[in-house]
Design a protein that fits this description.
Order of helices and strands: HHHHHHH
Radius of gyration: 15 Å
Number of domains: 1
Number of strands: 0
Number of helices: 7
Length: 110
């Protein structure tokens, strides 16, 4: 394993350079979109995640080739986006579910 990801990288930098890590960050509920400017260290501290094991998991994932199912063209296009464009893309695709869930919760709370 080649250690490419370090604790001083921002979450946005990590997912832009190594999209293979997105699943791990999602699993840990680390927000690489709106809080993409946070470093991995800040994200890990916020979620109380041990850094050494997290770095090992992320770098192991980063060493794996991008799965063909991930459609290389989409990933390459995503890598070409600016950070602001990446954030907008993620908000428009992934945050829709969260917004719907919050609306449902508000309805149930009434």
């Amino acid at each position: 394993m080649t250690a490419r990801i370090n604790e001083n990288m921002t979450l946005a930098e990590i997912v832009k350079e190594y999209p293979q890590t997105i699943g791990i960050l999602n699993e840990l509920h680390m927000d690489y979109c709106c809080n993409g400017f946070h470093t991995l260290r800040q994200g890990a501290d916020e979620k109380d995640v041990e850094m050494t094991s997290l770095l090992k998991r992320l770098n192991t994932a980063a060493d794996k080739p991008i799965a063909k199912a991930d459609t290389a063209e989409d990933i390459e296009a995503f890598r070409e986006l600016s950070i602001d464009e990446m954030i907008e893309s993620v908000q428009n695709t992934h945050h829709i579910t969260e917004r719907q869930m919050m609306a449902d919760v508000e309805t149930m709370a009434e």
